[in-house]
Design brief:
alpha+beta, 2 domains, 4-stranded antiparallel sheet, 10 strands, flat
Amino acid sequence: MDNLTHTLFGLTLARTPLGRAGRGTTTALVIASNAPDLDIVSNLAGPGGYLTWHRGPTHGPLGVIGLGLLTAAVVWAGRQYFDSQRDHQQDRHASFGMLVVAGSIGVLMHVLMDLPTPYGTRLLSPLDWHWYSTDWMPIIDVYLLVVLAAGLMFGRGSPAAKRRNAAIVLVLMMANYGLRGVAHHQALADAPRLFGPLLPPPCDSGANTGIIASWPPATPPTPPEAGKRCLVEMVAMPTFFSPFTWRVIAHLSNAFELQDLDLLDPRFRRPPRESEVMWRTTLRVPNVWTPAVFTAASSPLGQTFLGFARLPAARSFVEPTGAATVRWSDVRFAATFVPLDQPTRNNTLFTLRVRVAPDGRVVQEQLGP
């Protein structure tokens, strides 16, 4: 989620009974609700450093505990300093222990709000570097922002009114998450109709089938037999405005196929007709792992990118000299919020180019389009 949403949620938590712990609790909740994103400093090491560390240890169990303690220490020290400058002795102070509790809750809720987004988060880092996601929520949910902002704006009365409005906001948030979760399930159920008779049978790959998806896979993809292909997994990504519109991605053994799905389309609520050829509008992105692709995948930046990318599509171009250029793009970010018939530009972080010499040496690596 974006930091504005995290901040507004921290302020909302401060209006629950948790905020009655004493002075400093609100500050601790707001700071802790944003603290995991301190990993932005990994940008100083370049794009590769960002992909390596973003949503890593600061979003794992050690991060929840460590950042909760750090937040409590910062708020405690700041309160001691400002109290020495002004007379705040009439205010009831939150104990250091309660600040730790508030800080840990703020960090934990940040992580849990990142989990439902397609970007995902590394829940167990640094113990386990796998990414996890449920794909329910867009990175920025305008409805969530409106509910949080309205709850704070119209709940500035008595403490009782603030707590009541905070409870209403939390109920509306759960309803929003629940609606998107149900819609995501329905999008996956309707997906086969989009791709029609050309959708191949499932692979025996043990791909994601539960509520929480995880990546990268334990082993690299195995090239299919000549003339054959299979369905690795079906993925439904949320779009920016409507909880009923989804970007559906069929991950095949040799390509990715993309379709936009509207759950309110009446064609999905009746038996299929022969005249319906929705599969003809499918966008296909090749993903062929040649020997040059496997070589590039072993490079340092290749390992970093493939450890981050959930749906990496590989293309390779061999020159007359025998040198090859391998290009990966993360299909997950292929214009998630833009209709497929509109042109887009690639994000520099989500595309990797690797050049392999004729003798198999990696001579160049670059993140960018």
